[in-house]
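User: Show me an example of a complex going from sequences to structure tokens.

Assistant: Sure. Here are the input components:
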Amino acid sequence: MPPSHRFGGEAYNDDPHVEKECKPMLAILIQLLVSGIALGFIYALVGIEYTLVWNSTGLLNFSHDKLITLGAYIFGGTLVLGLGLNSWLSVIIAMIVSGIVGALVASTIFNPLRNMRSTIFAVMGTIMLGRILYEATRLIWGPIPFTVPNWLTGNVIIHDISITKANLYICVVSIVVVACLQTFLTFTKTGKAMRCVAQNKKAAALMGINVSQNICITTGISSIICCIIGMLIIPLFNIDVNMASMIGLKGFSAGVIGGFGYMPGAILGGLIIGIVENLSVAVLPAVYKDVVSFVLLILFLLVRPGGILGKKA
Amino acid sequence: MLKINGIDAFYGKVQALHNISMEIGDGEIISIIGSNGAGKTTLMNCIMGVVKARNGTIEYRGENITDKKTHMITRKGIVYIPEGREVFPNMTVLNNLEMGAYSKSFSQKQLNEHLDSMYELFPRLKERASQKAGSLSGGEQQMLAIARGLMSDPLLLMCDEPSLGLAPVIVDDMFNVLVRVNKMMNIPIIIVEQNAYMALSVSNRCYVLENGLVTASGDSGTLLNSDEIKKAYLGG
């Protein structure tokens, strides 16, 4: 996968430097660690985004990586480059549009299909939606990858250590998103209702909660997080129809490793994958980077299928 | 208050309820008894709109609620405490109680007043307020389920198998509480039970359900002494 190679490659390119003196080796490790943490946060956000839907509907949204791509295209392709809007205004509009898209997905796929005899109907629905979104983005914005100039670019240099601003933004924004989501789920009436729906739909309806409407809200929030992920990874992967396929899969691994359906698990799993695969570049050839997280996934499925924080099944 | 006119209900092709009619008046305690699989819970689910009745109507305070969604029926004041308690296991007792009042827009003060009255009814819940509901004992969970139901000031309370899986001492407590609630809040209560003796002794009237049919109904005292009921449900 060229995009991820590109990401780790930045630090890797400094390698000749290492042979000259010993000190930069530490600097490189720190750089790898920081980019690992940043990527880990991205995986964690992916994990959170589909865990929300999974808990709320009992279904996996197989179109989630396409929603991430869509968010990036709406932001970069239409709002910033197409309409020439200010970046921060574009961020807000893109998030609102994504939220509406998410609610539409819930009301056209999850709610009508979740009570069918088998969950396969809804799952097929999300897979088809993924195909539709994929082809739609290609038709609307074209197949050629592009990027948004001056969006989260630049470096911060402390002594020998050079850290891209994108990585810092990713860490800060992810922490803010997690904190906001947690506050929302713990303190607001709608957030509490979302937790009720996740735990017991029948009892939630008996409390007077409109379960279908609540699922729309949850999917909308999940879709907003997808959009945030999409905007954050533009400086790393460019805007491309396949930009989120790999992180979509790795976000899934993050959930399995941390504990499926459990949000702190998704965060822990994401960070572990991000850090381990980035540090693996120091010992393994960089092309094996993507292998690491999937080896971890398989190991966990074999040895501890409940994940690190998950309850034993 | 609630009037059920000849409803039929199906699970797939299997008919679970046959032409059930019953009526619940203001301030009454009604019990519905019957063996496992008689259709008691299905009847409750029909009233709440969880299972849709195919024929017949359900009228609540003069309004047809047969085709209403569950959450709308709850908002109208019918509270159903489901079989098996169905508390939210990963939320604290306090959060569970707060969710009971979801359908009402209480101010913080009103909410606290309601919480206080529930703690008064079940002092045990106050001690456990910050504990996860899933860690409570069966009896405590049943108390929580009843208290959660009462948080929204119901106009009609329906309690499904309040004695299920509880120790005999606690069963007595549970029924005492229901009688107290009936007197205190002056609301009608429907008790669905397999424990026929207990249900008959606290209720005013009773319906006996067998294979989806009402086979007997009438004054609880009379039924308690009827030979057939004694033989079928009270162990001779």
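The lines above are the inputs; the final block is the predicted structure for all two components together. The first strand of chain A starts at residue 155 and ends at 158.
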